[in-house]
Amino acid sequence: MNPFSSGTRLRDMIRAIRACKTAAEERAVIRKECASIRAAISDNDQTFRHRNLAKLMFIHMLGYPTHFGQMECLKLIAAPGFAEKRIGYLGLMLLLDERQEVLMLVTNSLKQDLNQNNQHIVGLALCALGNICSADMARDLAPEVEKLLQFRDPNIRKKAALCSIRIIKKVPDLADNFVDPVVSLLKEKHHGVLLTGIQLCTDLCKVNEEALEYFRKKCTEGLVRSLKDVVNSPYVPEYDISGIADPFLHIRLLRVLRILGHGDADASDCMSDILAQVATKTESHKNAGNAILYECVGTIMSVEDNGGLRVLAINILGRFLSNRDNNIRYVALNMLMKAIAVDAQAVQRHRATILECVKDLDASIRKRALELVYLLVNESNVKPLMKELVDYLEVSDQGFKGDLTAKICSIVEKFSPDKIWYIDQMLKVLSEAGNFVKASVWHALVVVITNASNLQGYSVRSLYRAIQISRDQETLIRVAVWCIGEYGDMLVNNIEMLDIEEPITVTESDAVDVVEIAIKNHSLNLTTRAMCLIALLKLSSRFPSCSQRIKEIIAQYKGSLLLELQQRSVEFNSIIGKHKNIRSALVERMPVLDEATYNGRRARSASAAVSTSLEFASNLSNGVIARTDVAPLVDLLDMGADEPVPPCSSGGNFLLDLIDVDMPSSSSQSDVLLDLLSAWSPPPQKGSPTTDIILLNQDDKPSVNALDILSSSMVPSGEAKPTGPYMMDLLDVFGPNPATPEESGPTFPPIVAYESSALTIIFNFSKRPENPQMTDIEAMFTNKSSDVYTDFVFQAAVPKVNA
Amino acid sequence: MGIRFVLMVNKQGQTRLAQYYEYLTLEERRALEGEIVRKCLARNEQQCSFVEHRTYKIVYRRYASLFFLVGVDNEEVSRAHTFTIMCPNELAILEFIHLLVETMDRHFGNVCELDIMFHLEKAHFMLEEMVMNGCIVETSKANILAPIQLMDKAS
């Protein structure tokens, strides 16, 4: 005996593992055992091979690596005794997988065992093959398996049938060989053989259209008869489950009939009587009976239309839905989702019950019910359904709010009958679960508000009211702050009051209070606080009486450690202090954002895979503008030249638009790349570049980069730390003469793409006169070092633009 | 029926038997078991026996201190017929779990966690007779247990 082999029995090892108090102890025990098993393996110890493999299986189950035992399985399989083979095959199925080369080695042993005379050994080999067979093995061993479908012992035939499924799934070309044997399997009486034969038939139908047609013609009647036999069979103790003979066979039969009947009127007709019998006669007090009914409903829904049967099926589902057992209700919801496609009207009748399920205590049921409700909504029922859902949002638990909010927003956007309803619902959602609302959803809300010129006053007042109540929903705060900035005057003066509104008295300083509270709330996101600064800038011009106070608030952020806030504060301070003449023009209302363009963009960005540049951009401080990082600067510059300026434009406004370009300005190297990206993107959608840029930039980010590039100073922003004086210089350049950028519009100045002590890359841009949409970029590489560059590779990343 | 794994877990969440009918690496298996156990064991008696997780639908049932969990394909769409959606029959799987437990009961006599731990290979043999490649092979307890009894007699 091997001196290293610990010789512990399997039982003792399991005891030792059970006695472990900590994971570390367990690891230690396992390590020791594995070491001794390895030693035994390398000594080729035979006495304990069997036991060692059993130990390894236990260790494997606990989730430790056991690959070193794989060869032991092969040795045991090759042994002549049944007991060795048995444990060897089990080990093979557990420890190995079809990807491993070891499988090649086992093919031969399998072949031998499949040809054995001992049925138990054949059974073992079939089972192993059925579980681990690879495509290569399938080709090699298919003839053996085919032969075994006619083996004398039914227990072998049933295993051979399932093994064939694996083979045809791995190598669909082999399907033809199995069609005829299946026909005879389907005539058998042995439940196991019938069960597996039907399964094989089902899978053949799935992989091969011809096989399906063949079975449909030849076997439909026979299968219907089998179902009749099993339904009407007298009590068979061996297969009886709560008074029903072999529910598993029932279900398999119903399932294969589903495939045969689908899309074929004759076959469907042939099975309608028995389906009706199953649907009406099956005992529904026990789970087994309900399982059959559930399957039967599925089959009725899938086969060709038979009005009477469908009514029967929907009624069964209705009964299920009002069942007190959650399992039954769950499957009912599941099936109703499929039934909608067949008979939406019938499902609508159960709407009230389904809605109750959305509020169930059980998360699985809630999820199913919510998905079903989502499918049930249409123009006529959206209002009452929405009221229920929104009311429930208030009390639903946190884990569910995300799903619920997403669905509600999606329904509201899809079915809102009018704008005021849309705005009302969105405000409710924002106040209840603003933190779960996705950026694209509230962006859309803002777009809608800017478009609804008669509802802007109403919106801003409602938002003001909402924010007084729920102060911790960040998205609500963002929308409210943005609207107060834009439409603050409407809030204070009750402009455009609707009849349904109650008048409120809000003073100018109340409005500023809201923004001030938000900006001072340190738990809020940087983007939100930056939006507050913009709103304050806008209010400083709308509310002259508060101008001084606003100036003071803004000035507090001059020293902010958050660069973004600091920069905005410095810039705005200079606008308020030094540029009174252009201020009012600068802070005019945002032009109307184009809904169609926004929705188009949104749809595209939702469908397109998130390109890397977007992902990376959204990591920057400002998540909100994720999609706009690529807003092409080229566009912006072009705008001055080829496009009509937006309606309310003036020199100052134009500058504001420019300032609005969002270039993430946090100082990081990656900005250089972003600059390039934005400079390179070909202008998408020539039609409306102006709105393109603006509409996505609700949180304006005046950025040093934009100004940099315009003033041709071309400093990569990494170096351009926004220090006060420097910024003011830049602003001063533009202050007196806001028209300057327009002149630089048509031709884009060269850009320093990369600069280091060893290499400079400069891009020169030129437009082709015949085709202004095309921009030629000439890259100039300058080697500033004394070395010679060889194998120089230049890689550029450009954002995907789905035009 | 598209069974993708069968797990037996005690109420502390320790795996006592794991059989997969598709290949997962060790890490994937550990992660999956951890996630599922956390999800299912947190549920109470009144909640339904079905939990959706990743691409699986897990049907589980508790017997005393032992949880039996079966993972099935969440949505099995047949390739030839895009309209025939072969959704799993959760109730049937539940019935199958019960059959498995009854079969083990018949062999071990009121099966408990320790029976499965100390006779892991036998539990696997039984499962092997019941499920192959994710499909149910046999539903008669006598047929399932016959080879195992034969083996016991021989040894």
UniProtKB/TrEMBL annotation, chain A:
It comes from the Eukaryota. InterPro entries: Adaptor_Complx_Large_Subunit, AP1_complex_gsu, ARM-like, ARM-type_fold, Clathrin/coatomer_adapt-like_N, Clathrin_a/b/g-adaptin_app_Ig, Clathrin_app_Ig-like_sf, GAE_dom. GO terms for biological process: intracellular protein transport; vesicle-mediated transport. Residues 746-803 form the GAE domain. Pfam families: Adaptin_N, Alpha_adaptinC2. Keywords: Cytoplasmic vesicle, Golgi apparatus, Membrane, Protein transport, Transport. One of its GO terms (cellular component) is AP-1 adaptor complex. Belongs to the adaptor complexes large subunit family. This is AP-1 complex subunit gamma.
From TrEMBL, chain B:
Transmembrane segments: none annotated. GO terms for biological process: intracellular protein transport. Its main location: membrane. One of its GO terms (cellular component) is cytoplasm. Keywords: Membrane, Protein transport, Transport. It holds the Pfam family Clat_adaptor_s. It is found in: Endomembrane system. This is AP complex subunit sigma.
